[in-house]
Amino acid sequence: MLNVINYRSFSKLISFFPPELLHYFFLQTLKLNFFQKKKKYENLYTKVLGKDFDNPIGLAAGFDKNAEVINGSFNLSFGFVEVGTVTPMPQKGNPKPRVFKIPEFEAIIQRLGFNNSGIEVFLNNLKKIKKNEREILGVNIGKNKNSKDPVSDYKFLYNLVQPYADFVTINISSPNTPGLRDLQKKDKLEKILTTLSKLKKKKTFIKLSPDLSDEELEDICKLSIHSKIVDGLILTNTTISRNNLQSKPVRDFWKISEEGGLSGPPLKELSNKIIKKTYKLTKGKIILIGVGGISNGRDAFEKISCGCSLLQLYTSLVYKGPNVVVNILSELSGLLKKKGIRKVEDLVGKNINL
Ligand SMILES: Cc1cc2nc3c(=O)[nH]c(=O)nc-3n(C[C@H](O)[C@H](O)[C@H](O)COP(=O)(O)O)c2cc1C
After folding, report:
1. Which of 26-40, 62-76, 186-200, 329-343 has the lowest mean pLDDT?
2. Within a domain: 35
3. Residue 313's beta-bridge partner residues?
4. Is the CB of 208 under 6 A from ligand 1?
5. Are 165 and 138 in contact (CB under 8 A)?
C-alpha cells in the first residue's frame, strides 16, 4: 500500500505523531509482510568473508532492537539485516522525549539509551525466524546501563547469540550509555577481545564512533588486525558533534542542543573521513562496513569508493520511506555501469569521484 502512496506527503501528514510512536507503527506494518522483494541487480551481488550477499546495502542496528521484524526488513530488499542492540537484562532506556527529528537536514538526534526487551525475549524471537542462506543476519550486542562488569555482559551475550547469527557486532560506540565509548580505549578493548576470542564461532565486527581521535583509531586498527576475533569494523555510530548542523536555520533550533547522537546526512562527511583513514590504516586486511548519512545511490557509491565492502542505513528509511532501498540499489547499479565498473566489489577503496 505504502508503495503507491507518495511517502513524503504521507509522512508530512503524520508528522505530528511522536517519532517513537511512528516507529512502532512502522514495525507493525513490516510484521504484516506486505512488501515484496524487488528486482536483483547482477552487478550488486557481492561475496564478503565467504558469504553471498544479493546486494551490499544492509539495515543498521537500532531499527529492530528486539529482532521482531527480520523477515519484513528483508522484504524491503536489504542485502543483510542487523538487529539489536540487545542487552542482557531488559531496560527502559532514557526518559521521553528522547528522539528528535530535524527535518531541515533529514537528520535525527536521539538518546534512547538501549531501550530493549532483553536477551531472553530477543532469543525467543530469533528462534522463530525462517530465512534463506542469502539473508545474512547480524546481531548487535551491548552492555546494560547499570552493569558493573561490561566484559561479562559481552561474554554472556556473545555466547548466546552466535548460534542464530551470521555475524555479531560488538557495540562500544553508542553515545547514550554512560562510559560505553570508553570501552574503545586500547586496554579496555584488548580485554574484551581477548575474553571473547576464546568463544568465537561466527564473523565478528566492532562498531565504532565517528568522534574517535586519530590516535584512538590507530590503536583500534592495530588491535583489530592482530586480534584473532575481529573480521571487520562498522564505521560509524552516531556523533555527538553538531558542527554540520550550522549551514541553514532550523525551525525548532532548541532540538540541536538536545543531548544524544546525531544521524543522517549531517553525519556523512565525518563518517566518510574516518572510513578513509581506517582503510588506509588497515590496508584491506579487515572488512569495513560503512554507515552514516546514506540516502541515495551516490552516497552509497562514495562510501564503497572510500573502502567499504558493505553498507548500512537507518535514518534515510525514516525520511524517505520503505522504497529507499530499492531506489538506492537501482541508482548504484546504474552508476557502476556509467563508470564502467563491472561489479560492486571492484569499486571498494578505489577513490573514484562521481
Ligand atoms: C533511532 C536510532 C536508534 C539507534 N539505535 C542503535 C543501536 O541500538 N545500536 C547501534 O549500534 N546503533 C544504533 N543507531 C545508530 C545506527 O545504527 C547508525 O549507525 C547511525 O544512525 C548512522 O546511520 P544513518 O545516518 O544511516 O542513520 C541508532 C540510530 C538511530 C537513528
Report:
1. 26-40
2. yes
3. 59
4. no
5. yes
Grid cell for residue 327: 531506489
- Residue among 139, 263, 319 whose CB has most ligand 1 atoms within 8 A, to mutate: 263
The CB of 314 under 6 Å from ligand 1? The reply is yes
With respect to residue 1, please indicate whether it lies within any of the assigned structural domains.
no
Tell me: cis bond preceding 204? Omega within 30 of 0 counts. Answer: no
Answer yes or no: is 354 within a domain: no
pLDDT tens across 271-318, in order? 999 999 999 999 899 999 999 999 999 999 999 999 999 999 999 999
- For residue 267, give its domain range: 7-347
Q: What is the CATH number of the domain that holds 163?
A: 3.20.20.70
pTM of the model: 0.96
For residue 125, the cross-strand partners are none
CA distance 147 to 22: 31
Q: Is 61 in the pocket of ligand 1 (CB under 6 A)?
A: yes
Q: Which amino acid is at 270?
A: L
Is 192 within 8 Å of 184 (Cβ atoms)? no
Q: How many domains does the chain have?
A: 1
Q: How far apart are CA 25 and CA 216, in angstroms?
A: 40
**Is 2 inside any structural domain?**
no
